[in-house]
């Protein structure tokens, strides 16, 4: 019997890799992708990047404007994430099996979180542009709805895992719903929730650059303008500042997790 199981697993793996190989070959044939030319062009791309994609003296004169756009992008990301976290906490309380008031409301909250979470951020930006055109509000709302879905799901799982025993103990003593929330749910779940919030801020600062390309705002739009106008030195400066900012934010988040949480 064990031998048959191992043979079945081996055959399943072989079948999977065979199907993957056929799918890859079919994709290359349909798209007419030249794999050899793709790999050989990597060297040329690196040479071009070293020769053209670096900040020069003239690009540094654009640094104040780039920093202002970067500031706007960071503030928009933080604002969208923190506001979404407040609403996500409310939905998580409703959706969690530990703290839910009504099973129907719990299903609705979980369903809403699933829908919001599974719509890509780019899709949110494109949908919202139909109503709000290219503006900071469009970028803000795209980040807000994406964060709301993700954080609601994360908070629900955190509440279910972290506070179940404390809630059961307080329920056995006849404690009120508000006492359970304040004395059991929040104290046991808050550190993990803050960790998820910091993670979402990191993610949104990265994603806000892409959203800016679509909504015509922030540092993403600055990169788009410089790159499309062949100002590669300025575009490279934008990329460098984005990378430095993301690394700095991640270091701050890791420090907060280590020392505060």
Tell me about this structure.
It is a single chain. This protein is mostly helical and 261 residues long. It has 2 domains: 2-52, no CATH class; 57-259, MetI-like (MetI-like fold), CATH 1.10.3720.10. The chain has helices spanning 2-31, 35-52, 57-60, 63-95, 103-118, 121-132, 136-162, 164-172, 177-215, 218-228, 232-259. α4 (63-95) crosses α11, α9 packs parallel to α10 and α9 packs antiparallel against α11 (232-259). The longest helix is centred in the C-terminal third of the chain and has 39 residues, at 177-215. 33% of the residues are buried. The model has no long low-confidence stretch (mean pLDDT 86).
Number of domains: 2
Anisotropy-based shape: globular
Instruction: Give the radius of gyration.
Output: 24 Å
Q: How large is the count of helical segments?
A: 11
- CATH homologous superfamily classification of the largest domain: MetI-like
Number of strands: 0
Query: If you consult CATH, what is the topology of the largest domain?
Result: MetI-like fold
- Sheet having the most strands: none
Q: Order of SSEs, N→C?
A: HHHHHHHHHHH
Distance between the termini: 49 Å
- Uncertain ranges: none
* Residue share in β-strands: under 5%
**Secondary structure category:** mainly alpha
> Helix content range of the residues, please?
over 70%
CATH-defined architecture of the largest domain: Orthogonal Bundle
The average pLDDT score comes to: 86
- Output the CATH class name of the largest domain: Mainly Alpha
Q: Oligomeric status of the shown chains? A: single chain
């Amino acid at each position: 019997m064990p031998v048959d199981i191992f043979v079945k697993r081996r055959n399943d793996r072989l079948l999977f890799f065979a199907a993957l190989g056929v799918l890859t070959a079919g994709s290359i044939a349909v798209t007419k992708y030249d794999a050899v030319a793709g790999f050989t062009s990597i060297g040329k791309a690196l040479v071009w990047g070293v020769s053209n994609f670096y900040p020069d003296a003239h690009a540094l004169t654009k640094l104040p404007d780039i920093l202002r756009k970067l500031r706007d992008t960071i503030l928009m990301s933080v604002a969208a994430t923190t506001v979404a976290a407040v609403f996500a906490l409310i939905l998580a309380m409703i959706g969690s099996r530990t703290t839910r008031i009504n099973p129907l409301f719990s299903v609705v909250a979980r369903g809403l979180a699933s829908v919001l979470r599974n719509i890509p951020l780019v899709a949110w930006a494109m949908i919202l542009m139909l109503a709000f055109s290219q503006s900071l509000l469009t970028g803000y709302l795209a980040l807000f709805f994406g964060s709301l879905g993700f954080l609601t799901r994360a908070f629900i799982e955190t509440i279910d895992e972290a506070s179940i025993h404390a809630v059961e103990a307080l329920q056995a003593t006849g404690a009120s719903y508000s006492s359970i929330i304040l004395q059991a749910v929040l104290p046991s779940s808050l550190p993990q929730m803050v960790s998820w919030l910091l993670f979402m801020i990191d993610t949104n600062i990265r994603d806000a650059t892409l959203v800016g390309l679509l909504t015509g705002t922030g540092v993403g739009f600055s990169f788009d303008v410089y790159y499309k106008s062949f100002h590669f030195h300025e575009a490279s400066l934008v990329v460098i500042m984005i990378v430095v900012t993301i690394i700095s934010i991640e270091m701050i988040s890791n420090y907060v997790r280590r020392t505060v949480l």
